[in-house]
Write a structure and sequence with these properties.
615 residues, alpha/beta, Glutamine Phosphoribosylpyrophosphate, subunit 1, domain 1, Rossmann fold, 3 domains, eight-stranded antiparallel sheet, six-stranded antiparallel sheet, 19 helices, 24 strands, globular, binds 5-amino-5-deoxy-1-O-phosphono-D-mannitol
């Protein structure tokens, strides 16, 4: 949450910083602000609301030219989202400007101490104390980097800080503990950002910072130390996507672009995963086959949409490997005293790689000696760095707050993990695995067909305009799909939406069915298990009570449901376990379309942020 940018170089710092904030706005959009180090001291501008408000402020009151600057786009934690609480926060001498992501837990005590010393603090934020504390250290004669070290050692909680000082031109200092910060290495210029999108326009060479590190950037140098000022190791990496991936590319919404990119995201996540003789290879994973052979229990942990990917994983991994899989919300995991040991594999799933609940679950699991494998879409992020093993998804940057291509790529990574475990444990023959992988490799084309048929879904969104509540039903892997369909609609359309296991309806929720309530039903393909027959009975039960049914069904099996469906969404034929890859897509399109019709900002829904870096 919150997007942070820092710049030192030869360009207009204002242009670089505001451009970076625009690409980080998905991280929070309660307010925006900048601070520049000019020849005449600090120049700042900040405004509540989205960045367009800051743009208007900068137009009305232009700032002087500067080549050193910092900026912030906020997701509010401490203090209402107003102009005063917007970052940057400047100390009462006007010398030090600070932007912050995270929560400083001991801020009340620090604030009391500063006020007792005569400092005047003007905002309700936890952040403001930092500018005063740093200014005090500077006044005591410490240079800016040392002042930041001293102050960081006093802070508790989670923080990324980016700081500039009016009397130290050409220098920006960043610090990180439990919140993201990456460095962009330029030529005669250097950058800081909450993620690489902040500076992708200028460089794709990045440095991943570790925990409790301070980075000092000038135009020509980058120096990383720990909080005591001792040199500290980092990892350089090259970003494998460019500016075009972080822009809308002609689509009305990032979400629409990202939905359209799903065939590619799935194909890229599958790319290079097997040798010419058909053996799966997950080279990047950092866990040996021996270690994997010893796994006797898996706990899959995640939040939100990623949690639904974990639910899908359970069906697939248990089916292929016979290893029991528990699925757990990251925010609940460590509070229930879970049973873990060296043979437990904890699989965490996170698109951003920064979700604090998931990170805390990882730390807990590792303390308990379990091995942690993370499925993650973001190179350089905290979660893969703190895990024993990583399986990257290759969906490219996901900008819209609502996850779409990130989810499909996660589901694919879970399938790959399940099949790989089956291979190393020897519980499936090689040719069986090869056939399943062939089916998986056919899914991008099937997803593309769903996208090509999106017009029918848009018509349904128009037909359901005015609905106050929409339900989603599924069985087996269709159940997490139903949950995901409901989550997408809640977060984008601010509407009551719920997903249920279809068989569970009769145990209570069926009471909410009344005349005209729209109910989406994900029908599993026909198989040996009678799942399809069972869900068709469920459709009849709700239809008999007045529900308006929207049925997602294999295009070859439409006849089985047409008598009970008010609307039909045809899905390409795929094996049952892979149905989430095609069935989720119409529900994403529906939620996007439905929200857009209501006039909502699809990419930046209210109250939300893309990376949830607080617990
Ligand atoms: O980055 P992560 O995958 O860890 O994020 C987890 C959730 O916060 C995320 O999936 C959230 O539920 C999305 N906004 C859903 O669209």
């Amino acid at each position: 949450m919150c997007g942070i940018v820092g710049y030192v170089g030869q360009r207009s710092a204002l242009d670089v910083v505001v451009g970076g904030l625009r690409r980080l706005e998905y991280r929070g959009y309660d307010s925006g602000g900048v601070a520049l180090v000019t020849a005449d001291g600090l120049a700042t501008a900040k405004k509540a609301g989205k960045l367009v408000n800051l743009d208007a402020e900068l137009e009305a009151r232009p700032l002087p030219h500067a080549t050193t600057g910092i900026g912030h786009t906020r997701w509010a934690t401490h203090g209402a989202p107003n102009d005063v609480n917007a970052h940057p926060h400047v100390d009462d001498t006007g010398r030090v400007a600070v932007v912050h992501n995270g929560i400083i837990e001991n801020f009340a005590e620090l604030r009391a101490e500063l006020e007792a010393d005569g400092h005047e603090l003007v905002s309700e934020t936890d952040t403001e104390v930092v500018s005063h504390l740093v200014a005090d250290r500077l006044a005591a004669g410490e240079p800016l980097p040392q002042a930041v070290h001293t102050v960081c050692r006093r802070l508790e909680g989670a923080f990324t800080l980016v700081i500039c000082d009016a009397q130290t031109p050409g220098v920006v200092v960043g610090a990180r503990r439990n919140s993201p910060l990456v460095v962009g290495r330029g030529d005669g210029e250097n950058f800081l950002g909450s993620d690489v999108a902040a500076f992708i326009e200028f460089t794709r060479d990045a440095i991943e910072l570790g925990q409790d590190q301070v980075v000092v950037i000038t135009a020509d140098d980058i120096v990383v130390t720990d909080f005591d000022g001792a040199p500290s190791p980092t990892r350089d990496y090259h970003v494998d996507w460019d500016l075009s991936a972080a822009e809308k590319g002609g689509y009305d919404w990032f979400m629409l672009k990202e939905i359209a990119e799903q065939p590619q995201a799935v194909a890229d996540t599958l790319l290079g995963r097997h040798s010419s003789d058909g053996l799966l290879q997950l080279d990047e994973m950092r866990l040996s086959d021996d270690e994997l052979r010893n796994v006797d229990k898996i706990i899959a942990i995640a939040c939100g949409t990623s949690y639904y990917a974990a639910m899908v994983a359970k069906y697939a991994i248990e089916h292929w490997t016979r290893i029991p899989v528990e699925v757990e919300l990251a925010s609940e995991f460590r509070y229930r005293d879970p049973i873990l040991d060296r043979s437990t594999l904890v699989v965490t799933i996170s698109q951003s790689g920064e979700t604090m609940d998931t990170l805390m679950a990882i730390r807990y699991a590792r303390q308990q000696r379990a091995r942690v494998l993370s499925i993650c879409n973001t190179n350089g992020s905290t979660i893969p760095r703190e895990s024993d093993a990583v399986l990257y998804t290759h969906a490219g940057p996901e900008v819209a707050v609502a996850s779409t291509k990130g989810f499909l790529a996660q589901v694919v990574a879970c399938y790959l993990l399940g099949l790989y475990l089956a291979q190393v444990k020897g519980v499936k023959y090689g040719d069986e695995i090869r056939r399943i992988v062939d089916d998986l490799e056919a899914t991008p084309a099937a997803i593309q067909r769903v996208l090509d048929d999106a017009e029918e879904v848009r018509k349904i969104a128009s037909a359901l305009a005015g609905s106050r509540s929409i339900l989603f039903l599924g069985r087996h892997v269709g159940y997490p799909v139903a949950l995901e369909g409901a989550l997408k609609l809640k977060e984008l359309a601010y509407l009551h939406a719920e997903g249920f296991a279809a068989g569970e309806l009769k145990h209570g929720p069926i009471a909410v069915i009344e005349e005209g309530v729209p109910v989406f039903v994900v029908v599993p393909p026909k198989g040996r298990d009678q799942l399809q027959e069972k869900i068709i009975s469920n459709i009849q039960e709700i239809r008999a009570r007045g529900a308006r049914t929207i049925v997602l069904v294999d295009e070859n099996e439409v006849d089985a449901v047409s008598a009970f469906a008010d609307h039909i969404i045809r899905l390409p034929r795929v094996p049952t376990l892979f149905q989430p890859l095609v069935a989720t897509v119409p529900l994403q399109i529906f939620a996007c379309e439905f929200a857009a019709q209501l006039g909502h900002d699809v990419d930046q829904p209210r109250n939300l942020a893309k990376s949830v870096t607080v617990e």
